[in-house]
Every structure is written in C-alpha cells, then in structure tokens.
Amino acid sequence: WSDNPALCLLDYLLADYGRELALTDIDISSFIAAANSCDTSVSLPADPVATETQTIYVQILGQMVEVPPGGFFPDFRVGQPSGNRKRYTTNLVLESDNSTIDNSAEILKTMKGSLPFVNGKYKLLMEEEGTSVMTFNDDNILGGVNLGWADRSKRTNRVTVKFPNENKGYQDDTVSWPAAHSALHVAYKAADNDEDLHSEFELIGVTDFYQARDMAEFAVRE
After folding, report:
1. Tens of pLDDT, residues 28-62
2. Residue 93 belongs to what H/E stretch?
3. Strand runs labelled E in the chain
C-alpha cells in the first residue's frame, strides 16, 4: 500500500482494474523520479498573518473569532500538524464508471503531473523547479518578439481550494492562498488595480491541508 501519487498512478495504469498497459508501455525511470519527488520531506510553511482586524467564522471551533492585525488565522493552526510532511500524497476513490483517462487525470492533479506519450511510452512529468536548457538572444531569435500581460480573465490574485480535510474527518474544507486581507493579498490586489481576482476549484484526491494550500499558491503564481 502507498499514498504516493506516482506509484498509485503506475499501479492504475498497469492493473486489470485500470488501463492494463504493459510494462514496456511505461517510461519507468520517469515514474521512479516522480515517486522520489513526491516522497521528499518538505518543511511546512509559516502561517499567514492579518494586516487588519478580521472577524471570521472558524468551522472547527463553531464560532466567530476576531483576528487582530498581526494575528494568525485560526483555521491555519487548529488541528493541523507541524514540522515536515511529504511533498505530495493522494487519497481518493476512483469511480469505475469513469474513463481511465479521467481517473488518471484525478491522480495527476494531486502531484501537478502530466502524462505525455513520448517515443512510444507514457512518461510522467511534474511541475517542478528546473534549470534553463537554452538561452535566447539576437543570434537565435528570428523575427520580432511580442510581450504582454495575460488577459484579465486568465489572471488571479487569490485562489480557494475545496478539499476533504483528513484532520477534520474528511469533511469538506477550504483553504485560500494568499489568505484574504493578508499582506501578500493586499500587495497582489494593488498590482491588479485593487481588484480582487478570486477563483475557486476542487481537489478530491488531496486531503492534506498544506498540500491543498500549496496547490492554491501554484495556481496563483502560474
């Protein structure tokens, strides 16, 4: 048994209850690299603080709580683990009525992964930090270059993720990044003419609070 997304996906692609691929159809080295990346122990990020007095409802406490300037948002602290966690885990039910493509996509969402078909094999790739492989300059650019900001409909300065929180009995929970009215949120809104460009999405396979918040941050920065 494993909650490693890369290993879960590999099992699903090979199993008779999944895609039933042959091992020769899989780029195994890419899955090994992805599995190791998912198991990497990462430090949990610092909790955000409020920039102004906020009165918010804390679901786990069942009451309204006033957060003063410089104070921590309670939902980020109550019932959550501390220290280090695995970078990515997955915990979900795959519906047998769904296509194997859709089910594979749900697993891929839990690790920011993609599954291109390269040289006759399925290769697992993850959105991770890397090093540049080419430098562009006047010697290798042909024609002009146009630069522009993304269209407003494609930008966001805050994202909320809905997910089943394992620390709350897998009840539906939400987490936003950056936290509303935090210093970073205020700065991001200022860059967008003080407009709150907020979007939401759901992750059914992510049950860890900090992994869900990481996904929200990734969406905003992207």
Report:
1. 999 999 999 999 998 877 766 666 676 766 655 66
2. none
3. 41-43, 54-58, 63-67, 84-86, 113-114, 117-118, 121-122, 125-126, 158-165, 171-177, 198-202
Residues 124/31, Cβ–Cβ less than 8 Å: yes
Rounded Cα–Cα distance for residues 212 and 195 (Å): 24
The two tokens of residue 127 are 């959105």
Q: What is the pLDDT of residues 100-145, one digit of tens each?
A: 999 999 999 999 999 999 999 999 999 988 888 999 888 888 887 8
pTM of the model: 0.78
In terms of C-beta density within 10 A (0-12 exposed, 13-18 middle, 19 or more buried), how is residue 91 classed? middle
Amino acid letter, residue 127: E
- Reported as half-sphere exposure (CB side, CA atoms, 13 A), residue 203 has a value of 33
SS (H, E, C) 104-155: HHHHHHCCCEECCEECCEECCEECCCCCCCCCCCCCCCCCCCCCCCCCHHHC
Best CA proximity match to 41, nearest among 5, 84, 90, 89: 84
Residues 6+ apart with CB under 8 A from 149: 155
